[in-house]
Design a protein that fits this description.
Distance between the termini: 44 Å
CATH topology: Thiol Ester Dehydrase, Chain A
Shape: globular
Radius of gyration: 20 Å
Helix content: 55-70%
Number of domains: 1
Number of helices: 7
Strand order of the largest sheet: 1-2-4-3
CATH class: Alpha Beta
Structural class: alpha+beta
């Protein structure tokens, strides 16, 4: 039996890199449009994942990808949409963390707890307004993927119209919206 377990371990060490190499070749989508792919090809947005992106077409967007596997639910699109919404909420909370870190770097004192806590519901409300940009179903295993996008300009409009935020906090968020986005976009590139 020890020989058999060693053989399994060896074969998994060999098969995983081969599987990864074959998937990376299958994921190249040269010439495919945003949100579409040729049959059997994974769209680039699925592989890029979530974060802040400055698109070549011009807009700066927060992106979130949600996935649902066939065995998880019968409503694949709804489940993937729900997961993408949760992922977008996570991305926007990361944006807020970048701003909080900037506060510390600049030597600003700690924020009152209520100011920090009021930001989260406002971000969730804004994230709920994001639209489905693309969706794709893997013909191989039936997995369903949804891409949500929220343009930075729409995000800032949502912040500006939020009634839950203290005016001083709102001013700070709007002031640092672009630098925090740029920092997140740079991290995605790396």
């Amino acid at each position: 039996m020890p020989v058999l377990s060693r053989l399994r371990a060896w074969s998994s060490c060999l098969l995983l890199p081969l599987l990864a190499a074959s998937l990376s070749g299958a994921c190249k989508t040269a010439g495919s449009k945003e949100g579409s792919a040729r049959p059997g090809r994974v769209p680039a947005w699925v592989m890029q994942g979530s974060g802040a992106f400055a698109l070549a077409s011009g807009p700066k967007v927060f992106r979130a990808v949600g996935a649902a596997m066939r065995h998880q639910t019968s409503d694949l699109q709804g489940f993937a949409r729900q997961r993408a919404g949760l992922e977008l909420d996570r991305v926007l909370r990361s944006w807020r963390i970048v701003i909080l870190a900037r506060d510390r770097e600049l030597g600003a004192g700690p924020r009152p707890k209520r100011d920090v806590e009021n930001v989260a519901p406002a971000l969730r409300s804004i994230a709920a307004g994001a639209g489905i940009k693309a969706q794709w179903q893997d013909p191989g295993d039936g997995s369903f993927f949804v891409l949500l996008e929220l343009e930075l300009s729409e995000f800032k409009k949502g912040l500006a119209s939020s009634q839950a935020l203290d005016p001083g906090v709102l001013e700070e968020l709007l002031e640092y919206a672009d630098p925090a986005f740029a920092e997140m976009a740079q991290a995605v590139k790396q």
